[in-house]
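Look over this today:
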Amino acid sequence: MSAELPTLLLIPTGIGCDQGGYAGDALPVARLLAAASGCLITHPNVMNGASLYWSDARIQYVEGWCLDAFTRGALRLRPQRRQRLGLLLDAAIEPELALRQRQVFEAAGATLGLEIGPLISTDAPLGVSLRLAAGGSSWGSLERPDALLRAGERLRQAGATAIAVVARFPEDSSAEALQAYRSGSGVDALAGAEALISHLLGRHLGLPCAHAPALAPLAPMAELDPRAAAEELGYTFLPSVLVGLSRAPDLLPPEHAALPGDLSIGQVGAVVAPAGALGGEALLSCAARGIPVIAVQSNHCLLQVGAEQLGLTVLGAPDYCAAAGLVLALREGLAPRALCRPLPPLEDLSG
């Protein structure tokens, strides 16, 4: 097997992707692409399956804002075997539900052997609100970002090297959007606000950060879509976040002294994304650098921002199995065009 080909897997959150728009349902995709590439860089919503998770040393778990900074060349990644985890709890979480989060944190140390460190509750409720845009994608806002950042700073000062955040989210078990999501035909209404929280904290602290919402358990639903089922197996969504953060890479500015094994955008050999969601900052940064873009046609979403609209040249893949084949071809130094029939004609510049 040839040397690893660092590859980015991007599946934007909150836009209803068929794969990756639910509870860690892109984990099989991530595992396949990690095997094909030898080194996969992706963001938490791909990996977070609430009570279900998969740890793979070939997968680098990088929060979305930090991933954007990495593709701009503003950050390098330093893979780690272990992070010291801090837990940040929203003061709005009810005592019994907060106790459940603390118990998961302690269990991660006792049962999984993760290095758990300090925990803290914010000095004021964070005030999370949720919205759906006119096009159906989810977003949200935070009343007290200052309380979030203060608590994060205290965890960093106390020695945490990665931070899991649990905020109390509003809920309405009868809401149409929630029922659609549980049935497999809707958008994750929490995703936009979750991304906001982790973006704010990751940018401010320069540490790996990821979020899990605090919600009351839902009544069982017989027709539950399997892609949403992982979120209904326990009292919290925290386990997968702790496992992902436990081996998240350190985030280093480019002026920091480099070590063998550090990852920079110049080493990335491919980026894989849904064909209708190619307009994100990370993907466009990669395309501008000439990194091959593999556009997966089967992963439908609410957006229709494709290669044609953006004037991009991409490698089309009908599904993620084909995308993995293209990654493997690039890793082996094979020209993807050589695998297709009919072969494209030569470009003759002489006449």
